[in-house]
């Protein structure tokens, strides 16, 4: 024999709606049958009034039963409301879990998208470095930066031998020297500094929590002579306004060989 059909709510409770409905219908039918039988008996009695008074207690009983039925209905309604509240709590918990899972997936996707772009820029920057060439001295890649620094240092020394007496805090004097040097090697250095700046700027503008992790990777790519040229670039009008704040914030010049500066006091300009 198959079990009677049932309905199961979210909390796992089973409500037997069929038997409850049968009980209610049976009770209604019994009341009407009893009412009809009593009416028929009262009709054939010689003194129906006295006969009716005999059932005063029965009337009180039925009134009590009706009140009990009302209480039972209220109790059932309360149970139904409780079940609905539990269903709402379970639904909210499930939606909260789905929201947290979706946020975690979005964070993962954003991180993957950022890292793809970051490493592409880093590879592009290394390609730019490797493409730098000084044919007259047969130098390529990072080896060119020692030559660049020596040229910049020679310009400084020539100006000093010419009788220049700049103040140690004179950024204007250093800017003049660097800009003269930069104009002579802009075709090699222009792409380099723009690429390096945009790579660091990408990390700075991102939503990554540990930005230092990525800027440290950038810093690890820079040789000592790259750091020296970057130092004087950031003091010039080429990098002072936009690039220098990022260099300071992420400590890109942490491993700068200060003993190779034109003047040890130049470090105080930072």
N- to C-terminal distance: 91 Å
Overall shape? rod-shaped
Tally of strands = 4
The main β sheet shows up as: 2 strands, antiparallel
Helix percent reads over 70%
Round the mean pLDDT to the nearest integer and report it. Answer: 81
SSE ordering: EEHHHEEHHHHHH
The structure class reads mainly alpha
**Could you say how many structural domains there are in total?**
2
| Biggest sheet strand line-up | 1-2
Q: Descriptors for this entry?
A:
270 residues; mainly alpha; two-stranded antiparallel sheet; 9 helices; 71% helix
3D architecture notes:
The longest helix is centred in the middle third of the chain and has 76 residues, at 56-131. The chain has helices spanning 17-44, 48-53, 56-131, 143-161, 171-184, 186-205, 211-220, 224-235, 243-249; strands at 7-8, 14-15, 133-134, 139-140. The protein is built from 9 helices and 4 strands, in the order E-E-H-H-H-E-E-H-H-H-H-H-H. A hairpin with a 4-residue loop joins strand 3 and strand 4. The chain has 2 domains: 15-106, no CATH class; 115-269, no CATH class. The radius of gyration is 45 Å and the shape is rod-shaped. Strands 1-2 form a two-stranded antiparallel sheet.
Quick summary:
This protein has 270 residues and is mainly α. It is built from nine helices and four strands, in the order ββαααββαααααα. The protein has a two-stranded antiparallel ribbon with strand order 1-2.
């Amino acid at each position: 024999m198959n079990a009677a059909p049932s309905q199961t709510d979210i909390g796992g409770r089973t409500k037997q709606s069929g038997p409850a409905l049968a009980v209610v219908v049976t009770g209604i039918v019994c009341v009407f049958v009893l009412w009809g039988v009593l009416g028929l008996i009262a009709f054939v009695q010689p003194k129906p009034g006295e006969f009716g008074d005999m059932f005063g207690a029965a009337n009180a009983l039925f009134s009590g039963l009706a009140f009990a039925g009302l209480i039972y209905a209220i109790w059932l309604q309360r149970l139904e409301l409780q079940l609905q509240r539990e269903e709402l709590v379970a639904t909210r918990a499930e939606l909260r879990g789905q929201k947290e899972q979706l946020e975690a997936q979005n964070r993962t996707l954003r991180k993957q998208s950022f890292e793809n772009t970051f490493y592409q820029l880093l590879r592009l920057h290394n390609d730019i470095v490797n493409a730098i060439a000084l044919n007259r001295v047969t130098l390529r890649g990072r080896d060119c930066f020692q030559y660049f620094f020596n040229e910049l240092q020679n310009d400084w020394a020539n100006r000093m031998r010419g009788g220049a007496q700049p103040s140690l805090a004179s950024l204007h004097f250093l800017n003049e020297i660097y800009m003269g040097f930069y104009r002579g090697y802009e075709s090699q250095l222009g792409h380099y500094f723009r690429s390096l700046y945009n790579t660091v700027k990408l990390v700075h503008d991102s939503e990554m929590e540990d930005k230092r992790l990525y800027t440290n990777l950038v810093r690890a790519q820079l040789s000592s002579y790259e750091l020296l040229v970057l130092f004087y670039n950031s003091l010039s009008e080429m990098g002072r306004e936009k690039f220098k704040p990022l260099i300071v914030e992420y400590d890109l010049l942490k491993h700068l060989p200060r003993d190779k500066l034109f003047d040890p006091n130049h470090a105080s300009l930072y």
